[in-house]
Amino acid sequence: MHRLIEVEIKTCTLRQNTSGEGLVPLWAEVEMHPLSCREEAICMDVGLKSFPILSNGEETVNPRFNHPEELRLAKEQKKLSKLPKGTK
Q1: Domain segments of the chain as ranges
Q2: Is the backbone of residue 49 left (phi > 0), alpha (psi -120 to 50) or beta?
Q3: Partners of 50 in the beta sheet?
Q4: What DSSP string runs through 50-80?
Q5: Which of 51, 64, 79, 82 lies at a C-alpha separation of 20 to 30 Å from 42?
């Protein structure tokens, strides 16, 4: 195994699929530990003009830095698709 398992394994099944890959699903019982709570909470709204808007009023602009290049690329690809195959 590639990592140590520190639980008691309840069941183990050996399987082989049609492509020859072997699978070994393991079932075990694990103790759950609750996560600690934080005092502060931040809400986030995702919009089109301002990508994340936080509850403290902080805004970040939507990253549209590739938009002009995408338009130019689409135009060039359309032009290229109308040319005979193999031309440069």
Answers
A1: 40-83
A2: alpha
A3: 61
A4: EEEEETTS-EEE---TTHHHHHHHHHHHHHH
A5: 64
